[in-house]
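User:
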Amino acid sequence: MIFKYSLFTIFILGSVIIGCENMAPDKTNTAITGEDVLATLDSLSYRLSANGKAPIASEEVIQINEDMRRTVESIRTPHLLTEMAEIYAHQKHAFTFTLSEDQKIGVFSWHTKMDATGNRIKNIALYDTGNAIEPTSLYDTPITYKKIHQVKSHKGEDLYILHGHLNSGDSHYFRLNAYTLRNGYMEEAPIFPNSESSLSIAQISNSPELSDSLGFRVEMNGIRILLPEIQNVPVIGRSLAFNGKNYSPEPKRN
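Assistant: Predicted structure:
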């Protein structure tokens, strides 16, 4: 079952459970754990799912989304983020969470149930500044991010490629967004053709079936990107390769 947790875990996550001043010397303070955070997010996302779709978002739906945002933004230590990723991988959830290989960027995505407002999906990224974990919004239209690929530039800079999609009936939208961490901030990285920081493509029907459920196929630890073949949609080339600075079309093979 997804939501086997006690109601004890539903509390404000920014606090720490502190015992009284007269506690025995051999006792220690108990901090919030990754399991606590996931339990809270699971409970909130379950309540969202139970609301279904409505032409106008109810006050309850708006409040649940606000509670989810606050819960995610309360995650302020690298250890907590890493612990959550380890537990998340072994359970099913109604929200999506992905963490970069070096554990410095994590992205949460969930369906808000507020489609009528134009805010169908909510994204919150958490990144490591070197001193703490900071939350930030992401550029571009919110989508469900499933993976984070990571490559290193010839200057030694880590580049993070967020890989996600958005489905609506027979329509499918796939996108890659590139970011880097610089001077304590998470910034867009213009590493795709034409100095773009994102690469996207849309499929308006389920035929032909794509070879990858996320549209783009990223290979060789992010060094190579295979673009999906979609009828009547012009593409830059069948594949892109990273040269240490940016991605460029690979020459056609005979």
